[in-house]
Amino acid sequence: MLSNLEVLDRIGSPRVLVLGDLILDHYVEGRTERVSPEAPVLVFQTGFASHRLGGACNVAANVVSAGGKATCLGLVGEDVRAQQLADLLSEAGIESNGLVVDSARPTTVKTRFVSGTHQVLRVDDESKAEASEGARRGLETFLDAHLGEFDAVILSDYGKGVLVPELIQKVTQMSRAAGIPCLVDPKGMDFSKYRSATLITPNKVEAEGAAGRKIESPEDLREVATELMEAADLESIVITLGPEGIYFRTKNGEQLILPTEARSVYDVTGAGDTVVAFLGLSLGGGLALEEAVRLANLAAGIVVGRFGTAKVTRQEIKGAMGMIKPGKILDEASLPQALVHLRSDKKRITFTNGCFDILHPGHLDYLEKARSYGDVLIVGVNTDESIQRLKGPERPICPLDVRLAMLAGLEVVDYLVPFGEDTPLELIERVTPDVLAKGEDWRDKGVVGREWVESHGGQVVLVPFLKGFSTTSLIERIKSLD
Fold first, then answer.
1. Contact indicator for 85, 107 with CB cutoff of 8 Å
2. Disulfide: which of 97, 110, 115, 174 matches 32 by Cβ 3.0-4.6 Å?
3. Tens of pLDDT along 267-280?
4. Higher pLDDT, 340 or 135
5. Which residues contact 372 (CB under 8 A, 6 or more apart)?
6. DSSP per residue over 39-96, as a string?
7. pLDDT value for 292
8. What is the helix (H) or strand (E) element at residue 435, kind and residue range?
9. d(CA 305, CA 266)
10. Reading across the β-sheet that carries 236-240, which strands appear in turn?
11. How far lies 196's CA from each of 57, 184, 235, in Å?
């Protein structure tokens, strides 16, 4: 494990070019509760849908979330999905000036139908045909004009026809001549097409397929790594071994197996993207290979505990390294750190929210009941501005810092997170709790966040109130004493 904060901070904010197959991930979340009477298939009841960055776009998203700068270079179709993808890239802070339109192909979309925590079906809308000559010229024009502006280049190959051998060789040779690290997340059995790259990052199955032999011992691993490096004239190779960890070897014989950092595995989708992104970020920032691999291993251990393609922040890495110990009151930076620790320890997380203006016994009773549904209680607290929008200009009575201090003094509360939106939906999605607790008065109003929590395998509970206590009645009583 990295030994100190200086190693991580030394990376800075390098610029990384991610060239490869751009994918729009489409998630349709719902329920499967019965088998169709028409055929032996499940009936999928649609809930809600969302879009995420996939493929090379997810690599770029991981680079940005970890503190780097990223540009995506690849092909999109002449369709509405291309604009959806460009909008998501922009929202993620990723430069999209490298999107080249190829009217002969659709924008690649993978649609996953998800019930609870399980994928029921995946539908791919794509073309695997090699990029046309015109499309390839568009990619090469960008490389000629901009490659020297980057600190690292990542080739993200999903086998969709973008990374043809001629384009790969142009990139690897230009990168080597410019002294820029060029990393490859490979596809297929022939790694010689990646000749002259700095390193490749196959998983164990991919390495076995390319070498034509099984890896059953450390000696096999060393021999396979050496063969693949020599075949493609590589400086290094990094092989992810699943539950066995991660292995790297260099041309001069340096090698090491690092044990996995994952404490729980929820979904391995996109884990390879995270590894190559953190390797590219680290090498582009000047770290040595072993330091880069240790960092990537930590990041992979975090991302496999999440649903779907996901990204890991530098703050989360610091939290996983034990560099930052969050207190009770969390912010945008420290919330992810707390969640990493809680999920690593397999804690059952309960979330609730409220204004908590003039703390009273009803609040305490409610929080104790909410806490009883899990191991940890995270409370979202409305900011002063959001309370004014909800309840009028005379509220709150107690400002946010006072309300947080009072709540933090309660043993039953584990963490507090202020939020300024009119509803806690965005915060709920960030936390994705095991239990969402709300007051019983929400029974007929519809619980904000219910669909999100239930679609991710959680539950919603309605907590009864202690009769005779409310902030509004207290305020009215105080006013009546005047």
1. yes
2. 115
3. 444 578 889 999 99
4. 135
5. none
6. SSSEEEEEEEEEEEEEEHHHHHHHHHHTT-EEEEEEEE-SSHHHHHHHHHHHHTT-EE
7. 92
8. strand 435-439
9. 5
10. 95-101, 69-76, 15-20, 152-156, 182-185, 199-200, 236-240, 246-250, 255-258
11. 24, 11, 8
Number of residues that make up the chain: 482
* Residue 232 near residue 186, CB atoms below 8 Å: no
β-strand pairing of 182-185 with 199-200: parallel
* Short-list 72, 24, 31, 91, CA closest to 52: 24
321 Cβ contact list (under 8 Å, min separation 6): 1, 2, 8, 298
Amino acid at site 267: D
The whole-number pLDDT of residue 304 equals: 60
- Give, in degrees to the nearest 5, the angle at Cα 469 between 467 and 472: 130
Helical H segments across 92-194, by residue range: 133-146, 165-178
Distances 208 to 220, 232, 243, 337 between C-alpha atoms, Å = 10, 15, 16, 36
Give me the domains of the chain, ranges plus CATH numbers: 5-313 (3.40.1190.20), 334-480 (3.40.50.620)
Q: Hey, which residues does 203 pair with through a beta bridge?
A: 240
d(Cα 261, Cα 300) in Å, to the nearest integer? 8
Name the phi and psi angles at 161, rounded to 5: 95, 0
Could you tell me where the beta strands, DSSP code E, fall in 358-431?
A: 376-382, 415-419
Whether omega before 336 lies within 30 degrees of 0, making that bond cis, reads: no
Confidence of residue 203 (pLDDT cuts 50, 70, 90): very high
- Is residue 4 pLDDT above 70, yes or no? no
Q: Is 273 a catalytic residue?
A: yes
Task: Give me the phi and psi of 80, to 5 degrees please.
Answer: -65, -30
Mind giving me the DSSP string for 189-213?
A: S-GGGGTT-SEE--BHHHHHHHHTS
Give the CA distances from residue 418 to residues 359, 385, 398, in Å, rounded to whole numbers and listed in that order.
16, 11, 14
Please give the structure tokens belonging to residue 353: 């929210």
Query: Taking Cα atoms as reference points, which of 200, 242, 188 lies closest to residue 225?
Result: 200
- Look at strands 108-115 and 42-55 and give their pairing: unpaired
Q: What is the DSSP letter of 432?
A: -
Which of the residues 273, 357, 414, 434 is marked catalytic? 273
Asked if residue 304 lies in contact with residue 269, where contact means CB atoms within 8 angstroms, the answer is: no
Distance CA 164, CA 187 (A): 11
Per the listing, tokens 């509760």 go with 33
Distance of alpha carbon 292 from alpha carbon 286, whole angstroms: 9
pTM for this entry: 0.71
68 and 92 in contact (C-beta within 8 Å)? no
Instruction: Give me 1's structure tokens.
Output: 């494990």
Q: What are phi and psi of 257, to 5 degrees?
A: -110, 125
